[in-house]
Amino acid sequence: MADFNVQVRGVGHVSIVDLKGYLDAHTAPELESTFNKLIEASNYKVVVNFDELAYISSAGLGVFMAYVETMRENNGDIKFANMKDNVYSIFDLLGFPMLYEFFKDEVEAIEKFNNQD
Amino acid sequence: MSEKTKPFEKELIIKSSTDNLSVIRDFAKNAAKESGFSDDEVGKIVLAVDEACTNVIKHAYKYAPEGEMSVKIIYDTSKFSIVISDEGADFDPGLIPEPNLKEYHKQKRIGGLGMFLMKKLMDEVIYREKVNNKNEVILVKYMV
Fold first, then answer.
1. Interchain pair A93, B110: CB under 8 A
2. Which of A1, A55, A57 sits opposite B19 (nearest CB)?
3. Residue B77's pLDDT is what?
4. Domain limits of chain A?
5. Does B19 lie at the interface with A, CB-CB under 8 angstroms?
6. What superfamily in CATH does domain A4-116 come from?
7. What pLDDT is stored for residue B1 in this prediction?
8. What ipTM is given for this predicted complex?
């Protein structure tokens, strides 16, 4: 079974989603459930920290596509941080840099949200 | 590549559960490494195989975990081919048009990305409908 873990931390009004391991069609539902909980709690400002994510397939990328509009409609967003080159290259192939913000470090992503408030 | 690996064939027969994707990835990874691909190329092959098998599980077996699929790897020093076959419902990922990615994101179309990725990651993606009652997807990477 693929090793995957998702945890949520709060930093001020921003929710940090820490991903670890392998995000594929088997583990993507766990991430969906995390986004559903964030929406239920009206937490729309989300930074996803990819520091410990080793692998992603399109099933994982699809999760971000499915939830980003809801976040944006509620004055929030999904921003990406601490992504490794091999993972970024997949996001790049699928055109994500046109529509999502990527940051080297989660602190920069959090600041971007705070400056908008 | 300093020393050429001898040609080989390996086959993994496995049930159509998403739980098995990690086993399939390890199988593809080891064979790609054995053939002498760089880490970067190994990563591309592993992802393409994952996407092809995810499509089989999703479209041919509609997430029923008891279907059977075969992942056969054929390495012959000039090319590395992965033949993925199933006995599930007919589907033709080849008919999916290449998406305009900006429109794609706007429409929140979260399917079809796998086929798009496979084409980007591999040199060739061949789809064969129902040969001996099996669907086949063949992924090819040429050795350089």
1. no
2. A1
3. 86
4. 4-116
5. yes
6. STAS domain (3.30.750.24)
7. 46
8. 0.92
